[in-house]
Amino acid sequence: MCSAKSKLIIAYTGPLVDDGTMDVQELGPALMALSALVNEANKVLNDDNSTIAVKVNADFKKGSFEIQLELIRTLAAQLQSLFTPNVTMEQLIAYLGLAGSVQSLVGGPNLVDVIKWVKNRVITKATKHKDGTVTLESETDHITVNVNVVNIYQSVPVRESFDKLVEPTRREGIDSFQVRADKDKTVVQSIKKEEAKCFEFDSGKIGNVKEKVEVTETDEWVNILTVNFEDLKWRFMSDENKFYAKMDDEDFIKQIDNGDQSFTKGDMLKIRRERTQIRKADGTIKNEYKVIKVLEFQKRAKEIELPFEDGE
Questions:
Q1: Is 309 helix (H, G, I), strand (E, B) or coil?
Q2: Which CATH number fits domain 212-298: 2.10.260, 2.40.160, 2.40.50, 3.40.30?
Q3: How far are the Cα atoms of 55, 169, 171, 184 from residue 192, in angstroms, in the given order?
């Protein structure tokens, strides 16, 4: 099994961590986000079955701690690499902006540079060039970056992970997130508290990806499980499926208010149910139900009916 290793030192600075300690509730999610970040970027750039294991070396001094990344490739990925050029570990962390400037390795700005540049800008145009770069344009200026940087910039999991990685800097007492050189510990990348807002990411608010809404109607018989006269959220059961739906039939509600309808356990309704399905950009699906019309109301039977006929 082939493996590649690259050392990486990251640090959070500020009064809260100057004594070399950090709350595990802050550190734990940050390290998990770092692991997710490099693995998601690896999926985008290498498109293979390799994984990156993030191991922590015990060197917690002055708010810094060393992270050793190890890329473990499967046999299938090794065979694939014979035909498809892979992005090396050094290039991968350089594209992400976790190795300072990307100029010396791949040329052009890194992901951190692009995120800082975009800030409040709206990208109005993206132009691919034959040399493997892409020019991103806003209404006022532009930036040219390696196509691989653009690819990971577009990745929702990568952006979400980077957001979580810099999350501690939004806490009072933590001033910045840094990447430091392995040899002399000089700062090669820094994201300050005031810059952390650039990295906030909500996939549900992606400008060019809208929520998809689908509305359907069905007529069905349902059992009444719970009646709520306050917010009109009733609970029903259809076959084995239980669901909440807002009672939105005004005529039926008036009948209830006037005392013309009452309910007992086992009563059934034939309803026209409206389902609004919302598919969000982050892949989540939400269903909302509404009873737009009560078509029939069947009370629970109080006695067993028999087919009597009049006798002599």
A1: coil
A2: 2.40.50
A3: 25, 7, 12, 21
Half-sphere exposure of 171 (CA within 13 A, CB side): 20
The residues, ordered by sequence, that sit 6+ positions from 50 with a Cβ below 8 Å of its Cβ are 42, 71, 72, 73, 74, 77
Rounded CA separation 187/306 (Å): 89
pLDDT tens digits along 202-251: 776 665 545 667 888 999 999 999 888 888 899 999 988 899 999 999 99
Instruction: Take residue 111 and report the two structure tokens written for it.
Output: 């992901």
Give all strands (DSSP E) within the chain, no chain letters: 3-13, 51-61, 64-72, 125-128, 133-137, 142-146, 176-180, 187-192, 212-226, 233-238, 241-247, 268-279, 285-298
Helix/strand/coil for 262:
coil
What is the per-residue burial (b if ≥16 Cβ within 10 Å, else e) of 102-129?
A: beebbebbbbbbbbebeeeeebeeeeee
Give the domain ranges of the chain. Answer: 5-106+147-197, 212-298
What is the β-pairing status of strands 241-247 and 268-279?
A: unpaired
